[in-house]
Write a structure and sequence with these properties.
The N and C termini lie far apart (49 Å). Helix content is 72%, strand content 0%. The longest helix has 22 residues, at 17-38. It contains 19 helices and no strands. It is globular. The chain has helices at 2-14, 17-38, 44-62, 67-82, 88-107, 114-126, 130-137, 141-158, 168-189, 200-216, 221-234, 260-275, 282-295, 304-318, 321-335, 337-345, 358-369, 373-386, 390-408. Helix 9 runs antiparallel to helix 10 (200-216), helix 9 (168-189) runs parallel beside helix 11 (221-234) and helix 11 runs antiparallel to helix 12 (260-275). By secondary structure, it is an all-alpha fold.
C-alpha cells in the first residue's frame, strides 16, 4: 500500500508516471535488500519515500535537468531525514492527498481511452494486479496488461502535466476518476483472489479519496452518490466476516455490528446527492439500494419492492448483465424465488457472464429455495470452481455439500 504514496510523490517531481513507477519499484527493491540486515525502520513509509526521492534526484541529474531543482530536492530530502519519523505520515498527509489526486487525474486524462484510464489508475494507485483488474472488468488479463503499458507510453509521449484539472475539464474527467475509486473500493470490499474475504486497506483508501473529491467538487451529485455508497457499504465491514474469517452474507449478518456513524454519514451524502438533482445517477441509485438495507432493523424488514424499483432504474441506465443479476435477486426476495429464477435463466446465455461465478451461485441459491437440491448442488459446485477467492470458494463448496445432504436426507 506504500506503493501508491511513493509513486504519487515521485511523479510530482519527475513529471513522468512510468519513470515514477520504476523509481518507486527501485526503492522497494532496495528495502528488500537492506532491511533483512539493518532491520525494518521505525517508519518504513518514510524510509521508502526518501529512498525514492534520492533516486529521483539521480534521474534528474542524468537527464541534465535544472540545477535549482536539484538543490530544492536536496534540501527537501535533508529536512525529511532530520524530521521525527514518528510524525512523518501526519506531516506528509496534505501533500500526499494532493499528489495522489494529481496522479489520479493524470492517469484519467482524456488522451487515454476510458478503459486505459481505469486500468492505469487501479494499477498505480489501487495497487491491484493486472489479474485483479481483469477480474473486475471481466476482461482477459493480457488485454489489461497491454492497456497499462500503452497508457504509460502515451502519457510520456504527450507530456501530460501533473496537475488537478479545473473548471470544465474537471467535470469531463471526473467520471473516470469516480469509476476508479469505485473499483478500488469493490476490490477491498470483496477481494477477487487470495485467502482474505476483504482487503480493508483498499476500502479505506477509496473512502479517503472519495471524501477528498467531495470537498474538491461539492456540487457534483455523483461524487456525493459514490461517497454515500461507500460509507454505507463500509459500515457492514465488521459483520461481513466471522471470527474464523469466513464470509457472512448480508441477510445473515449481525446488524448490531454495523457502524451506525458510517451509515449516518452515507445517508447524509445521499441526501446531498438528491438535493443536487442526482437521485437517478449511477452511484446515487446504488447508494439508495444500500440505504434500504441500512434502514432495515432486520433482514425481514427490508423494503424489497423499493429495491426492485431502484434496480429497474439502474438497469435502464447501465444495460449491465450484472445489474440484471442483482435485480433478479431482489425480485426473488420481493416476489418469490420462482420469479427470480426465471430472470436468472434468461442470463445464462449472456457471454460476459460465462465465467462469472455469481451467476451459478445465485441460480443455485434460488434452486435450493425451490427444493431442487440436485440442480442446486451442481450450480454451487460450478460456482466454486469459477471462484478465485479461497474463502468464497470454500463457502460455495459448503453450500454444494448442504444440497447433497438434503438430497440424501
Amino acid at each position: 500500500m506504500e506503493s501508491a504514496r511513493i509513486i504519487a510523490g515521485i511523479a510530482r517531481i519527475v513529471r513522468d508516471v512510468g519513470v515514477a513507477e520504476e523509481l518507486a519499484q527501485d526503492a522497494l527493491v532496495a528495502a528488500l535488500s537492506q532491511w533483512p540486515e539493518s532491520g525494518i525502520p521505525q517508519n518504513p513509509g518514510a524510509w521508502l519515500m526518501v529512498a525514492a526521492k534520492r533516486r529521483a534526484i539521480d534521474h534528474l541529474r542524468r537527464h541534465h535537468r535544472v540545477e535549482r531543482k536539484h538543490e530544492e530536492l536536496g534540501r527537501e530530502i535533508e529536512a525529511q531525514r532530520q524530521a521525527d519519523v514518528e510524525n512523518f505520515d501526519t506531516a506528509m498527509d496534505d501533500e500526499f492527498g494532493d499528489d495522489l489526486l494529481r496522479l489520479m487525474f493524470v492517469a484519467c486524462h482524456p488522451v487515454l481511452s476510458t478503459e486505459a484510464r481505469v486500468a492505469l489508475t487501479l494499477r498505480l494507485i489501487g495497487g491491484l494486479t493486472t489479474g485483479e483488474i481483469a477480474r473486475a472488468y471481466l476482461a482477459p488479463e493480457a488485454t489489461i496488461a497491454q492497456r497499462i503499458v500503452r497508457a504509460k507510453r502515451t502519457l510520456t509521449e504527450k507530456q501530460i502535466p501533473f496537475e488537478v484539472p479545473r473548471g470544465a475539464d474537471l467535470g469531463e474527467r471526473l467520471s473516470a476518476v469516480l469509476e476508479v475509486i469505485y473499483l478500488i473500493f469493490n476490490e477491498g470490499y470483496t477481494a477477487t483472489t487470495g485467502g482474505d474475504w476483504m482487503r480493508p486497506a483498499l476500502c479505506e483508501d477509496a473512502l479517503r479519496l472519495g471524501r477528498i473529491l467531495a470537498e474538491l467538487a461539492p456540487a457534483e451529485p455523483e461524487v456525493q452518490g459514490l461517497v454515500a455508497l461507500m460509507e454505507i457499504q463500509a459500515s457492514r465491514s465488521r459483520a461481513r466476516i466471522s471470527p474464523s474469517g469466513e464470509p457472512v452474507l448480508l441477510l445473515d449478518q449481525n446488524r448490531s455490528l454495523w457502524d451506525h456513524l458510517l451509515i449516518q454519514r452515507g445517508l447524509a451524502a445521499l441526501q446531498r446527492a438528491e438535493r443536487l438533482g442526482g437521485a437517478r445517477g449511477l452511484y446515487a441509485l446504488q447508494a439508495a439500494i444500500a440505504a434500504c438495507h441500512a434502514r432495515a432493523l432486520t433482514a425481514e424488514a427490508t423494503d424489497w419492492p423499493r429495491i426492485v424499483g431502484l434496480y429497474d432504474q439502474l438497469a435502464i441506465l447501465t444495460h449491465s448483465p450484472i445489474v440484471e443479476l442483482n435485480r433478479a435477486v431482489a425480485v426473488a426476495m420481493a416476489f418469490g424465488p420462482a420469479d427470480g429464477l426465471a430472470l436468472v435463466d434468461n442470463l445464462t446465455s449472456e457471454p460476459t457472464l460465462r465465467g462469472y461465478h455469481l451467476l451459478p451461485s445465485v441460480r443455485g441459491d434460488l434452486l435450493a429455495k425451490l427444493g431442487r437440491f440436485e440442480e442446486a448442488r451442481a450450480e454451487f459446485t460450478r460456482a466454486a470452481a469459477l471462484a478465485r477467492n479461497e474463502r468464497e470458494r470454500e463457502m460455495l463448496a459448503g453450500r454444494a455439500a448442504e444440497c447433497a445432504g438434503s438430497i440424501s436426507g
